[in-house]
Amino acid sequence: MKIFLDTANIEHIRHGVRMGVVAGVTTNPTILSREGKVDYQKLVKEICSMVPGPVSTEVLSQDGEGMVAEARDMAKWAENIVIKIPATLEGLEATSVLSGENIKVNFTLCFTLNQAVLGAAAGAAFISPFVGRLDDIGEDGMEVVADIVEYLDSSESRTQVIAASIRHPQHCLMAARIGAHIATVPYEVLLAMMKHPLTDSGIERFRDDWRRVMAREGLL
Ligand code: G3P
């Protein structure tokens, strides 16, 4: 499973790329607005130059024509840009037009297998089911991801699933188990994925044992 960072924070992206684990980035208007009063186009271009893979940015228009116009413009920002288009009827039409022009689409705000089936049929490169938001309303978000992965893999589709709206390391674990192609994770969740108390106490214990023996042998 590939790991994308779900953030527009340059420092967090820089750290993730330095660790060698970040294969892409996803943003949305909420995520970009968290970075404050900045030139969003400049910020997205900078992210694109830092990341060795797809960087998703989202259209704000809700009508098909508007989405296509915005997407065509954004597509010129960088080679690795991917346009997030919402899973609506208008979005479906826009996805089909953009895919026909070789502009990569991330079909976002996807909550059902049916939406994913149509998004893939329209040519989306990625489908983003929102796990946490489904869990929030008492549904099983990861079950929807599993259904979509199974459907796309069995139909030998080239569309990839991005498990999105990931809230904690357990979501990542489940996404990996069910074979999600990608999980897009907040920076804090990425850090938490590596954390285990036994790793920390193990390091401590090795260091103490080493020091004790070295001190006994008079080597310290
Ligand atoms: O990847 C989509 C994500 O940014 C939405 O997450 O936590 O707002 O549901 P959340």
Summed up, what is this model?
The chain has 220 residues and is α/β, with parallel strands linked by helices. Helix content is 52%, strand content 17%.
Record the strand order, biggest sheet: 1-2-3-4-5-6-7-8
| CATH class type | Alpha Beta
> What's the Cα radius of gyration?
20 Å
Give me the strand/helix succession. Answer: EHEHHEHEHEHEHHEHEHH
What is the first-to-last residue Cα distance?
45 Å
Which structural class matches the secondary elements? alpha/beta
Number of domains: 1
The chain-level mean pLDDT equals 97
Q: Outline, from the CA principal axes?
A: elongated
CATH architecture: Alpha-Beta Barrel
Our estimate of the beta-strand percent is: 15-25%
Number of strands: 8
Layout: helices, strands, pairs:
Blueprint: E1 2-6, H1 10-18, E2 22-26, H2 29-33, H3 40-50, E3 55-58, H4 64-75, E4 81-86, H5 89-100, E5 105-110, H6 113-121, E6 126-129, H7 131-136, H8 141-154, E7 160-163, H9 169-177, E8 182-185, H10 187-193, H11 197-216
Parallel strand pairs: 1-2, 1-8, 2-3, 3-4, 4-5, 5-6, 6-7, 7-8
Helix pairs in contact: 1-3, 4-5, 6-8
The protein binds SN-glycerol-3-phosphate.
